[in-house]
Amino acid sequence: MKTHVRVAVIGGGVVGASVLYHLTKAGWKDVLLIERAELTSGSTWHAAGGMHTLNGDPNVAKLQQYTIQLYSEIEKISGQSCGLHVTGGAMLAGTRERMDWLKMAQARGRYLGMELELLGAAEMKKLCPLMDEKCFVGGLYDPIEGHVDPFGVTHAYAKAAQIGGAEIVRQTRVIDTRQRSDGGWDVVTEKGTVHAEHVVNAGGLWAREVGRMVGLELPVLAMEHQYLITEDIPELAGQKEQLMCIDFEGEIYMRQERGGMLLGTYERSCVPWSPRVTPWDFGQDLLPNDLERIAPSLEVGFQHFPRLAEAGIRKIVNGPFTFAPDGNPLVGPIRGLRNYWVACGVMAGFSQGGGVGLALANWMVEGDPGADIWGMDVARYGEWATRAYTNAKVRENYSRRFRIRFPNEELPAARPLRTSPIYERLQAENAVFGDYCGLEHALWFAPQGTEPSEQITFHRSNAHAHVAAECRAVREGVGLIEITNYGKFEVTGAGAIDWLSRVMANRVPKVGRLSLSPMLNERGRLIGDFTLGRVSEERVFLIGTYAAESYYLRWFERTQRPSGVQVRPCAMEYVGLSIAGPKSRALLQGLVDTDLSNEAFPFMSFRAIDVGMVPAFVGRVSFTGDLGYEIWVTGEYQRALYDLLVQAGKPFGLRLVGGRALNAMRLEKSFGTWAREFRPIYGPYEAGLGRFVDLGKPEFIGRAAAIREKEQGGERRLIALSVQATDADAIGDEPIWHSGKVVGWVTSGGYGHSVGQSLALGYVSNAVAAETDGFAVDIIGERRAATRLVAPPFDPSGARMRS
Ligand SMILES: Cc1cc2nc3c(=O)[nH]c(=O)nc-3n(C[C@H](O)[C@H](O)[C@H](O)COP(=O)(O)OP(=O)(O)OC[C@H]3O[C@@H](n4cnc5c(N)ncnc54)[C@H](O)[C@@H]3O)c2cc1C
Questions:
Q1: How far apart are CA 477 and CA 272, in angstroms?
Q2: Vertex 445, ends 443 and 447: CA angle to 5°?
Q3: For residues 710 and 695, is the Cβ–Cβ distance under 8 A?
Q4: pTM higher than 0.90 for the full model?
Q5: Distance (Å, rounded) from C-alpha 600 to C-alpha 322?
Q6: Which of 121, 341, 637, 668 has its CA 20 to 30 A from that of 279?
Q7: What CA–CA distance (Å, rounded) separates 14 from 478?
Q8: Residues enclosing ligand 1, CB less than 6 A?
Q9: What dihedral angle (degrees, nearest 10) is formed by the CA atoms of 684, 689, 694, 698?
Q10: Cα(192) to centroid(ligand 1), Å
């Protein structure tokens, strides 16, 4: 074993082997993989090897496509067969709602270049002869699904990596990882210590234990998972291999295994494995079978596929594999640990392993994952993702693996976990709550005396009329919205302004003012969008997206911040309330001594102001696009502020307003938001944020790339559409059509109550971005005509928020 390497990858499962291969492919040859036992000795060896392209996140779906296409490449380089069987796949729907879901999946696949075909039950039966078509409405056919041999794939990656210069040591456990003063790592193994510049934790079933070596508690949990293999079924003999198949109602997946069928299930009464510590002596072991637990799924499966009920069971496999709370991988560098990377929580190693390896290798070698991997970035979790939270969410996610997640559905596990001081007050007002990063926030308010719950649906729900009333209250009078769930940072110290000016693309505002600013990476891509509020010469508040707090902090660490500049996350310290609407000024003026007239406190002002007895920071800005104020106070004052505003608001007809109405109102103003319109695959000019990029500043990160984008025009444009929808609106990820061709995708959609239109925001290619007519958007499988809006449909001149 070498004693000094550029990268030490810990773990020789399919993920570690893929990372190793991709590092060599990207040109880093001096890389070492250290495996405790033999390659595949974690979850990998007993996997069913199924692979598929569909994923709820289109960016993850792209990486899944990449993974599947990679197998022939690694077979060719390594000479090792991956046991590739591209049988095609069938997703079978037993209900109309599931069929709607499949229609939406098919539509989404269109802009990803997937050839997915919707078929009725009778046509599906021709492809899946074992099914009883009476049990199904239809299904979706994907020609590039199938299965691989887990051992073959892992060894193909490993051999291809070795051919590329990598070293692999087996039967060597890493027992510690210690950061060195030179920024590298001492990787301590049973057989000696290796000095590595970078460490990759690809420990799979032991990723938590490997993380704990550096004080990291990764939000991953292993679940027991069972599949069975039937005896040979005579009807399969001599036939084309059966399709990979998912039966959503049975909650089972299936594929042919030699002469029989392999059948696995994500059972509702699922069981975590080793919830606290994974034993080091667990090797190529299996867990005891528990057919009772999966009996309900098998029963449905046997009804749906009667021939299977008659075939005997040849083998049962029960093995553990790991999940993150949302079921997507955890990939990327860890904040606070230099040159420490993770690639774990990969629950579908044979669909995702290639994409994970590619993204991580790009990130390490080029400084950027090269794709939009926000959905798998380890930074999407914060300290709130504790072990017990992870346990509850992983169990929920596992047991719902094949269930529909409706766009307006809020899941109940691990709630309530975090609440703001006014939570009980909002509860008493019949708030329907949503969960955002473990924090409860009001989505809308049900009338008193009714059940505060929302029917889950792809269509407009029972919330529609109430959200309409909340929007009306803001547009005609005044609404009160809790905005605690925004991310906040306080930047202070000598040099704070120079540092911020280098990190943000826009100017740092003058004292007493707000400014909006995109944050760009060196490639000029959008990695954040903030409101900056300057309190004093050397104190600035940044307000952005809470879900990206760790992501932003990790970026700030990379920016060579002078030692005198402190960046302090303070999202939960400063909780907030916003009032918005034409009567908001009169309401607030009655509570403060400061002159709030437009001349004295114009749009984008920001100042410390006492509201009644409550010391607060008040910004004259509102995401509703109306006259409005954001009021930030430390937690202990929030109840007093709330009570004061509610009391003083009575004569003005103040109404409580939730997040759903806020979203509808920002769509009426065509305002984008992080993780939807603003993501690291878009540039600021593409996203319509060019006016917030100050190219007059001498230097800021991403400036050169932004100049290029401005000169060359980028590839696409964010546009706003008015859609001829009837009882359902766009939700995001639907294809946008123009003249019969897919030209882009929707990033968000909803109903604009104040303008009486169904609205969508989305990106289209430059070629059609100036057109107004001829657009269409797929809504639940139906193509709806759409018109590009040349200006925001509500208050196009922006007069209301400025006056
Ligand atoms: C029953 C079952 C069926 C499945 N079916 C499918 C399927 O059909 N399709 C699909 O895509 N996925 C399937 N999976 C999931 C799949 O197995 C995982 O996604 C994949 O194996 C994860 O790979 P990994 O490399 O992250 O982890 P692992 O396979 O757990 O590998 C981690 C490796 O790291 C090594 N290691 C850990 N700690 C150390 C240390 N300190 N020092 C040295 N080495 C260390 C371990 O020995 C191990 O070899 C299934 C899983 C199970 C259990």
A1: 51
A2: 155
A3: yes
A4: yes
A5: 57
A6: 341
A7: 56
A8: 10-16, 34-37, 41-44, 46-50, 173-174, 202-206, 210, 225, 227, 317, 319-321, 344, 346-351
A9: -10
A10: 25
